Amino acid sequence: MIGWEDVYKVVVAMVPLYVALILGYGSVKWWHVFTPEQCEAINRFVCFFTLPLFTFEFTAHVDPFKMNYLFIGADAISKFIIVVVLALWAKCSNKGSYCWSITSFSLSTLTNALVVGVPLMKAMYGPMGVDLVVQSSVVQAIIWLTFLLFVLEFRRTGTDFSASTRAVGDSQVISVEAGAAGKDLEGNEAINVASPSTRGPSFWSLMKMVWLKLAMNPNSYACMVGLTWAFIANRWHFKMPSIMEESILIMSKAGTGTAMFSMGKSTIYHHHHIYEKVIACGTSLTVFGMVLRFIAGPAAMAIGAIAVGLHDDVLRVAIIQAALPQSITSFIFAKEYGLHADVLSTAVIFGMIVSLPLLVAYYAILEFLH
């Protein structure tokens, strides 16, 4: 049974993150240290350096031969359920959209498993709980964050191409119409002349562009390289050389801290505008995010866990870890790709505030049902 001492351990793990958050907030709001351009540079530093090394560091130390594949299967089923529901919502509902489906996927599936999950699961279920939450972190980094990167890059590549072709098409229309008085063309004919070069790329050429961009993003392969090392190290009992270990640690240790700092400043600067409130996305979107994070995610996980036959403490760990606070990495990606970063930052900040009582409540309810 979780006690006050265990709750205190979780609080101790979370408070340093809020220190970094407040420093980031104060650096812009109170002390005016950074300009919007400098804030963007900090975000890119986090996205392309500290987070990839942080991901590699914890992935490289997992034992892939001792993973609970039923637990991983339950997680995959829960994610599949959410993807199907969001796809149907985007396709069939007037209020649905591709962009909001991406953000809703992040809000309902991606968790801060290491920072909050490890101390919490250790207090609730001991080493078994810690082992499972680390496994979920590895799978999230390898599969689901890579999937998120792919759809974000796909969206940006398609948007950039559309914007560039519209610009080219507009210039062609203007030039053709300007000469129409001498070649004797009507306006409609001018548009028809210009329209062939506004045609979009094929699906496969767009996919090729996306994969090329992903290949240049260290977040895409940091987890894959880490897992490859984990397989080799555990199969043949290799140990990472200390000089390599320390070189990775010196940057990876800054991963969560710099991410929280970046989030703190981003509550002030977002798309080069100043916000005077921490809840940048508004109350209704905040409630929407909390419902997805703490209700929809655990509900989908419960369905997946029951479907594969999980029971006892493993079932309870599966449900509770799905209700952990929002992934910090999901905010960093949202900020980098310019998609609802205010919603994700609010989900991370307030998610961590309300998560402790909610997670303890989940624990008590599941223990009572048991």
Structural summary, described in words:
Strand 1 and strand 2 form a beta hairpin. By secondary structure, the chain is an all-alpha fold. The protein has one domain: Na+/H+ antiporter like fold (Up-down Bundle), CATH 1.20.1530. The chain has a two-stranded antiparallel ribbon. The protein contains 14 helices and 2 strands.
CATH first level: Mainly Alpha
Q: What coarse outline follows from CA principal-axis ratios?
A: globular
Q: Can you name the CATH architecture?
A: Up-down Bundle
Low-confidence stretches: 184-196, 270-276
Largest sheet data: 2 strands, antiparallel
* Radius of gyration of CA atoms, rounded to a whole number: 23 Å
Quick one: how many beta strands? Answer: 2
Distance N to C terminus? 13 Å
Number of distinct helices: 14
Helix content: over 70%
What is the CATH topology? Na+/H+ antiporter like fold
Helix and strand content put the structural class at: mainly alpha
H-E order: HHHHHHHHHHEEHHHH
**Mean pLDDT, as a whole number?**
83
Number of domains: 1
Strand order of the largest sheet: 1-2
Proportion of β residues? Answer: under 5%
Membrane topology: Multi-pass membrane protein
GO molecular function: auxin efflux transmembrane transporter activity
Family: Belongs to the auxin efflux carrier (TC 2.A.69.1) family.
Transmembrane segments: 7-28, 69-90, 97-120, 132-152, 285-308, 346-365
